[in-house]
Specification:
The protein has seven helices and nine strands, in the order ββαββαβααββββααα. The radius of gyration is 18 Å and the shape is globular.
C-alpha cells in the first residue's frame, strides 16, 4: 500500500498514486528566482497544481513517485518539515521589517528560530509562530510555542493547537527581549525532548498542570 515517503519529504495524495512536496521557504520569505524555479519544476514534471500552504510554503502537488528525486535536485531547496515527529514550521508575520503595525522584529526572531529548530526531531509534532504585534497574523495562540510582539517586548505562550482538540495557548511570560525569548524556547524544547510524550504540548500541560510546566522550564 502506498504511503507518505518521509525520507523524500513527499506526502501521498488522495488518489493514492501521486505525491506533494513542499520546499522549505523560511517564514514564507521567498525570492522571485525561487518562485520561478518552483514553477519550472511544477511544469517540467506535470504537477497537478501549486498550493500555498498554511505553513508559508508552496507545495508542488501531484508528482509521480519516480519524479520526486529529480524534482528535489532541480529545485535545489531543502524540504520543508511537513510530515513526521519534529518541529514542523515557524510561522512568521511581516513584523517591523515590512508591516506598518509591527511592534517587534518577528522576521528576525522567527528566522533565528527557524534556522535552529526547523526539522528538529522531537517525540511529537511541534509548531511555532512569531507575530510582530497583537493582531497575531501568524496565529501564535494556536501553536505549541507562540511569540507575540508588544510595545514592551515579546509575550510567550505555550500549548496551543488547532486539530481535533483545539486549544488556546497559555501565556507564560511577557515583556521579554529577544535573547530572553530564545533562552526560554530552548528550555521548552529541552522539556519536550525529556518528557518524551507523543502528544502535543498542550495535552502535556493539561496532564501535569501549568504551574508544574512553568517550574520545569524555570519560570
Amino acid at each position: 500500500m502506498a504511503k507518505d515517503l518521509l525520507e523524500k519529504g513527499a506526502i501521498l495524495q488522495r488518489d493514492q498514486e501521486t505525491y506533494a512536496i513542499a520546499p522549505h521557504l523560511p517564514g514564507g520569505v521567498v525570492s522571485a528566482e525561487q518562485l520561478r524555479k518552483i514553477a519550472d519544476v511544477a511544469e517540467k514534471y506535470e504537477a497537478a497544481t501549486l498550493k500555498v500552504t498554511s505553513s508559508q510554503r508552496v507545495a508542488i502537488v501531484g508528482l509521480k513517485e519516480g519524479d520526486i528525486d529529480n524534482a528535489w535536485e532541480d529545485l535545489g531547496i531543502k524540504p520543508g518539515a511537513a510530515i513526521g515527529l519534529c518541529v514542523r514550521s515557524v510561522k512568521i508575520c511581516p513584523g517591523t521589517t515590512f508591516c506598518k503595525r509591527g511592534q517587534q522584529d518577528s522576521v528576525g526572531l522567527g528566522l533565528k528560530l527557524d534556522e535552529k529548530y526547523h526539522g528538529m526531531e522531537l517525540p511529537c509534532k511541534f509548531k511555532m509562530a512569531v507575530s510582530g504585534c497583537a493582531n497575531s497574523c501568524s496565529e501564535p495562540a494556536i501553536k505549541d510555542i507562540g511569540i507575540m510582539g508588544t510595545p514592551k517586548g515579546y509575550t510567550v505562550m505555550v500549548g496551543g493547537n488547532a486539530a481535533i482538540r483545539p486549544r488556546i495557548a497559555d501565556v507564560i511570560a511577557d515583556e521579554l527581549d529577544e535573547d530572553e525569548v530564545l533562552a526560554l524556547v530552548e528550555k521548552i524544547i529541552a522539556f519536550t525532548k525529556a518528557h518524551g510524550s507523543k502528544h502535543r504540548l498542550g495535552r502535556v500541560i493539561e496532564d501535569i498542570g501549568l504551574d508544574k510546566f512553568k517550574e520545569e522550564v524555570g519560570l
